[in-house]
From TrEMBL:
GO terms for molecular function: 3-isopropylmalate dehydrogenase activity; magnesium ion binding; NAD binding. It is an enzyme of class 1 (oxidoreductase). Mg(2+) binds at residues 224, 248, 252. It comes from Desulfurobacterium thermolithotrophum (strain DSM 11699 / BSA). Keywords: Amino-acid biosynthesis, Branched-chain amino acid biosynthesis, Cytoplasm, Leucine biosynthesis, Magnesium, Manganese, Metal-binding, NAD, Oxidoreductase. The gene is leuB. One of its GO terms (biological process) is L-leucine biosynthetic process. The lineage of its organism: Bacteria, Pseudomonadati, Aquificota, Aquificia, Desulfurobacteriales. InterPro entries: IsoCit/isopropylmalate_DH_CS, IsoPropMal-DH-like_dom, Isopropylmalate_DH. It catalyses: (2R,3S)-3-isopropylmalate + NAD(+) = 4-methyl-2-oxopentanoate + CO2 + NADH. Binds 1 Mg(2+) or Mn(2+) ion per subunit. Substrate binds at residues 97, 107, 135, 224. Residues 5-352 form the Isopropylmalate dehydrogenase-like domain. This is 3-isopropylmalate dehydrogenase. The record marks 142, 192 as: Important for catalysis. Catalyzes the oxidation of 3-carboxy-2-hydroxy-4-methylpentanoate (3-isopropylmalate) to 3-carboxy-4-methyl-2-oxopentanoate. The product decarboxylates to 4-methyl-2 oxopentanoate.
Length: 359
């Protein structure tokens, strides 16, 4: 029997609530597909700070590095917002992405037809939306140096640096074109090349790599226009490739095309061990209430089976199960509309796990 070791890092806020539902789904998958899944739980973020004083303990690093894939809930929350910047919960997430060399973050925004009324946009605008955001994840302004808050001429100055090396752009470009080849063969590269030199280089390298992928259509868009176009007519996009920070922002916007931030899964790949997490955060405003939407996390498990375990049939099954549950009218609060049945986080997890077993 195939065996996979999964590092499970629930984290903070709604993290533990949604990860619990993803584990139910993994249990169902294990039974249905006859694979053995071994879970190794680790502390990260605020939960780790509370326990060990730091957000990313050595023990967690060891758990991660001895796993085949990592599942993360979310990190952060108001309780830890005033800590020294170097030990904030979010630093753990950035450290983990770097440790895993997870430079390519795939964030699919696909609308389930059943959720057409959950979006705040008109049905004809969102029907059929299927965008893959390919976000560069281990470089750019998130990691560039110099960074920090310094004294300068009698006042403080805050500095971050947007920095890309050629090879960093080249490898994310390749991922985007490869992904596009398996989809609708269109890549939109989003930059700010009218103002920022780092993205002038970005655009040049994207053009260069494109020469190897002439079967894929390429266009460039400035980020401000892209933000507007995503809301105006999202169906013009197939694959969006962009920098770390632009991808962070645009993927939250894309999430709302699908009804809720709670719908968008992600895969962070590039290294030996893949990292899988919903794109949303720890949602402190709804934590502990059993109302969070676990579907983003559950669908991240689907991506794990495709990208880390080469079992795309599992992703298909999870997707089908989610669709089945939505078709029966079950909704968590964030996607609930008239005529549908409101369920809790736990109930949604149970329903999807049961649906998988019934497939
Ligand atoms: P957030 O994504 O946590 O929440 C934004 C809004 O979306 C909130 O109103 C929240 O209730 C809602 N929401 C998010 N996920 C949901 C879900 N699954 N179901 C229903 N509603 C959901 O962003 P924020 O409020 O800006 O940040 C809160 C904390 O999370 C911060 O500490 C931030 O740094 C952290 N964060 C962590 C990650 C991560 O771990 N990957 C990602 C983003 C933010
Ligand atoms: C995300 C989050 C993170 C990011 C934060 C929490 C570090 O917003 O995963 O989208 O900005 O990458
Ligand atoms: Mn984000």
């Amino acid at each position: 029997m195939k065996t996979f070791k999964i590092a499970v890092l629930p984290g903070d806020g709604i993290g533990p609530e949604i990860v619990k539902q993803a584990v139910k789904v993994m249990d169902a998958v294990s039974e249905k597909f006859n694979v053995k899944l071994e879970y190794n739980y680790g502390l990260i973020g605020g939960a780790a700070i509370d326990e060990c004083g730091i957000p990313f303990p050595e023990e967690t690093k060891e758990i991660i590095l001895s796993s085949d894939a990592v599942l993360l809930g979310a990190v952060g929350g108001p309780k830890w917002d005033n800590l020294d910047f170097s030990i904030r919960p979010e630093r753990a997430l950035l450290g983990m992405r770097k440790l895993l060399n997870a430079f390519a973050n795939l964030r699919p925004a696909k609308l389930y037809d059943e959720l057409i009324d959950a979006s705040t946009l008109r049905p004809e605008v969102v029907r059929g939306v299927d965008i893959m955001v390919v976000r560069e994840l281990t470089s750019g302004i998130y990691f560039g140096i110099p960074r920090g808050i310094f004294e300068d001429d009698g006042e403080k100055v805050g500095i971050n640096t947007l920095r890309y090396r050629e090879h960093e752009v080249e490898r994310i470009a390749r991922v985007a074109f490869e992904v596009a080849r398996k989809r609708n063969k269109k890549v939109t590269s989003v930059d700010k090349a009218n103002v920022l030199e780092a993205t002038v280089l970005w655009r040049e390298v994207i053009e260069e790599v494109h020469k190897e992928y002439e079967d894929v259509e390429l266009n460039h868009m400035y980020v401000d226009n892209a933000a507007m176009q995503i809301i105006r007519w999202p169906k013009q996009f197939d694959v969006i490739v962009t920098t770390n920070i632009f991808g962070d922002i645009l993927s939250d916007a894309c999430a709302m095309l699908t009804g809720s931030l709670g719908m968008l899964p992600s895969a962070s790949i590039g290294g030996k061990i893949g990292l899988y997490e919903p794109i949303h955060g720890s949602a402190p405003d709804i934590a502990g209430q059993n109302i969070a939407n676990p579907i983003a996390t559950i669908n991240s498990i689907g991506m794990m089976f495709t990208y880390s375990f080469d079992m795309p049939e599992v992703e298909k099954a999870i997707d089908e199960a989610v669709k089945g549950v939505l078709a029966k009218g079950y909704r968590t609060k964030d996607i609930c509309s008239e005529g549908t049945k409101l369920v809790s986080t736990e109930e949604m997890g149970d329903l999807i796990a049961e649906e998988i077993k019934k497939l």
